[in-house]
Amino acid sequence: MTTFAPTAPAELPRDLGALLASGYLPRSVKAEMQANLLDRLRAGEQTLPGIVGFEDTVGPQVERALLAGHDFVLLGERGQGKTRLIRSLIGLLDEWVPYVEGCEITDEPTAPVCARCRRLADELGEQLPITWRHRGERYGEKLATPDTSVGDLVGDVDPIKVAEGRSLGDPETIHYGLVPRTNRGIFAINELPDLVERIQVALLNVLEERDIQVRGYNLRLPLDMLIVASANPEDYTNRGRIITPLKDRFGAEIRTHYPLELELEIALIEQEADIRAVIPRHLLDVVARFTRGVRESNAIDQRSGVSARFSIACVEELSGAALRRAAITGDDEPVARIGDLLDVVPSLRGKVEFDVTQEGFEEETLVLLARQATAVTWRACLGGQQARPFLTHLVAWFDAGNTLATSDVMSGHQILQAIGPLEGLGAVIGAAEPTMAESPGLAAACVEFAAEGLWLTRRIDKDDVGGVRTYASSAPETQDE
């Protein structure tokens, strides 16, 4: 994980003597995280900022594990925010920590552990040069893949150093791996079960004895770090597994989950999606219900989960659809509409694993779930007394022989001109979008939403031909005798 750290303040000590004179007292990574976490809890501040939906469930478990000084595993389906949560732990580290200048494993200046820094400390004493590391640089992350080696994680002999004339028995010939290079920080292993079992064995000493072993070297290198791993339950039990001794060395196993409430699902979408157009609130509600419906559907293989990236990508596609329409039609404001949802469904198929019985019906399944979500949202937003007058007038307008055509390239002004000044439009906008400022684009979106809901509740008809959706009366035409 690449970080761009700020420059250390100039007033910070630059040698060991000045550091000791400043009253510096060393403490372990877990001790500093515990102290900073307790400070946040006492102040009533967020302990895991940016994490939505875990405040009363996963968050307290993580806090307890940290305060207990435990390494832990986050177990959950894809797209539940495991990596995001792990990275948020960086904020619990001290902003700056000193280390021996030039040290590959960021040695504590008052108690260096690598051979190079111990030699320098003996030679230079209190003139030992030190520098400072920002909290953002104290995080290491490795995606566990089958080709990961012990050398990648722990280290190996550096042939270049040997070629320079050093003895193979010299500890300074070691090229340190990711784990020791994250000394005095947080090391994360994503998808730990995908790490082959013989490589997992190399982590046993790191987790229990806090040291590393490199090939045949008689080397004990005490490490100071928090180790956190993530795993998918399906991988955890079938495709791969965490070996029993390694599981036993993690202090806690914490189960993550998708947002438990609809409002939290919407909040997550608003936080994470790159939205560049107006997405009406009723449309966010539909997408959130759509996502939850996909997660609960028997037609979907639920073992791997339905990632939060499904809803985020859906809303971003809706934003793109609105921008495209505004560019084509010249609308002043790009506003997404309910008709755009079905247009973006094909792009979401790759984010869902379907049951084998649904082969060939993937798009139809998602369309059905999207329509079911739309119907539920429509009833929640427009099923009350406030919207009833407009819906009654709109049905009567259709029964009078009028039709309403919409498409992905039809402007909001065209929709409003088609229906004319129907009584109650302001009320239906207020019912669907109570917190948004009225605009022509928003009004058109609410009209299309109202018409779509009337069709879903079988009060009018709809034809969809060539991307043009035409709403019309469901009453039989009267024939002249």
Could you characterize the architecture of this molecule?
43% of the residues lie in helices and 12% in strands. The protein has 481 residues and is α/β, with parallel strands linked by helices. It has two domains: 16-255, P-loop containing nucleotide triphosphate hydrolases (Rossmann fold), CATH 3.40.50; 262-473, no CATH class. The protein is elongated and about 95 Å long. 39% of the residues are buried.
Write the layout of secondary structure elements.
Elements: H1 16-21, H2 29-43, H3 58-67, E1 72-75, H4 82-88, E2 96-100, H5 115-124, E3 130-134, E4 139-143, H6 150-153, E5 155-157, H7 159-163, E6 174-176, H8 178-181, E7 185-190, H9 197-200, H10 204-208, E8 225-231, H11 233-239, H12 244-249, E9 252-255, H13 262-272, H14 281-296, H15 308-329, H16 338-344, H17 362-382, H18 388-399, E10 404-406, H19 412-419, H20 425-432, H21 440-456, E11 460-465, E12 468-473
Parallel strand pairs: 1-8, 1-9, 4-7, 7-8
Antiparallel strand pairs: 2-3, 5-6, 10-12, 11-12
Helix pairs in contact: 13-14, 13-15, 14-15, 14-17, 17-21, 19-21, 20-21
Concise overview:
This protein has 481 residues and is α/β, with parallel strands linked by helices. It is built from 21 helices and 12 strands.
- Which structural category do the helix and sheet elements fall into? alpha/beta
The number of helices is 21
Distance between the termini: 78 Å
How many structural domains are formed by the residues? 2
Main beta sheet: 5 strands, parallel
